[in-house]
Amino acid sequence: MRSPLAPGIRLITSFSRDSWYRGFILLLTFLFYTAYHLSRKPISIVKSELHRNCSLVIRPAYLNITDNDTWCDWAPFDQVNYQTLFGVLDNSFLVAYAIGMFFSGIFGERLPLRYYLSFGMVMSGLFTCLFGLGYYWNIHSLGYYAFVQVMNGLMQTTGWPAVVACVGNWFGKGKRGFIMGVWNSHTSVGNILGSLIAGVFVSSEWGMSFIVPGLIIAAAGILCFIFLVEKPEDVNCSSPQHHIIQEYGETEPLLQNGNRSINGAVSTETPKIIQEHSEAISFYGALCIPGVVEFSLCLMFAKLVSYTFLYWLPLYISNVAHFQAKQAGDMSTLFDVGGIVGGIMAGLVSDFTGGRASTCCVMLIAAAPMLFLYNYIGQKSLGITIGMLLLCGGLVNGPYALITTAVSADLGTHESLRGNSRALSTVTAIIDGTGSIGAALGPLLAGLISPTGWNNVFYMLISADILACLFLTRLVFKEIKGWCGRIP
């Protein structure tokens, strides 16, 4: 008698060839962008080591130094304006990233994604390592570290438009919010791993806090070159049906989500599949897609808040709660853990309701009072600190994750494009590039404002959060109007 197949084999064979390829691409791009974020995180961990309160550090007996306040600091960050100098480093990276992002999408549409991503990751790994080598080469020039940050920022722009375009090529819109909500947790996973890896070396040899992540992202670039498949057609897999046009009479929906638009209207008409075109879209053409400008401006302020936490949270915890550098870095990872849950929940809710803008707006409104509370009661006890970091992380990163993934992919495959699948990279670059302007402003403003008190930094973050919500007002109204139209 022939024995039945083993349970594991039955499970494997229950999935189609297409499903296996899609899962493989999702995992591969997840690992790639995890590596991108992993290599960005060390600077925020190392800051509290570059400038310390040396009067509290035990000085080695062989050192004969009279200045007890700065003897253990790393020049040039041993000066009184060290926070401004840290702001220079942050903005050297972020301004280069913001400017480069607008061009990255254009290159991403015209170059093979596999080559483009591989080159970007290897070069980003090189410049990340060069920052860490400054420790071993005993470099104390601000210009050197700023130059490395600028080059690294430019190299990092290769990542986001390319990975979103690749995932958009493989996945349709049915459960895009949930799928991309789970997939976008790579941002928080990368931040967490980057914090933990940098924390291992920060108190002994902070140079290794950069070199190890640099080697990891370079290795990911080699992996990309060997394994990445850009489109389903390249391996004879079926292509997802992105481009569906519905007949709506006079009211045209903003985005499609299955047979439901982002304004909530449900069509009973049979969708018409239209032929794909391969022409690259112009920058102006991408801006004319309904919703691109609103979501881009919203992301600018949402990312301002998120990146201020990314670059300054460990230093804030170290200064306010008086934690050591490694402890502050480890504690800051809770913000990213909350971000994972927030991104997944935002995707699930927006899939269920069809309201991308409304989901973002509700989370942004809830985030404002939570930021206020975290600043005032967040350090009263360990339990409150953990709870507030998780909650703030979810509410701050949820809208950021939804806009940079599902919304960008929706807009990049919008019906007005008439099947132009190559627009996805440009649309993603415009949205994330505009968001990166906020990402550059946030840490810069934090560096300028923090000497006047951390309270003022949080007031700035709350104001940015409210502005992000206001830019979605028209889209939220349109969604609510669509939902009301469905009520009998």
UniProtKB/TrEMBL annotation:
Ranges that cross the membrane: 20-38, 84-103, 115-137, 143-171, 183-202, 208-229, 281-313, 357-377, 383-403, 423-445, 457-477
Catalytic activity: D-glucose 6-phosphate(in) + phosphate(out) = D-glucose 6-phosphate(out) + phosphate(in)
Keyword Hydrolase: no
Pfam families tied to this protein: MFS_1
One BP term from GO: phosphate ion transmembrane transport
One annotated GO molecular function: glucose 6-phosphate:phosphate antiporter activity
Gene3D superfamilies in alphabetical order: MFS general substrate transporter like domains (1.20.1250.20)
Superkingdom field: Eukaryota
InterPro entries: MFS, MFS_dom, MFS_trans_sf, SLC37A1_2, Sugar_P_transporter
Cellular component terms (Gene Ontology): endoplasmic reticulum membrane
SUPFAM superfamilies recorded: MFS general substrate transporter (SSF103473)
Sorted UniProt keywords: Antiport, Endoplasmic reticulum, Glycoprotein, Membrane, Sugar transport, Transmembrane, Transmembrane helix, Transport
Membrane topology of this protein: Multi-pass membrane protein
Record domain Major facilitator superfamily (MFS) profile: where: 25-481
Membrane found in the keyword field: yes
Cellular location(s): Endoplasmic reticulum membrane
Family membership noted in the UniProt record: Belongs to the major facilitator superfamily. Organophosphate:Pi antiporter (OPA) (TC 2.A.1.4) family.
Protein name in the entry: Glucose-6-phosphate exchanger SLC37A2
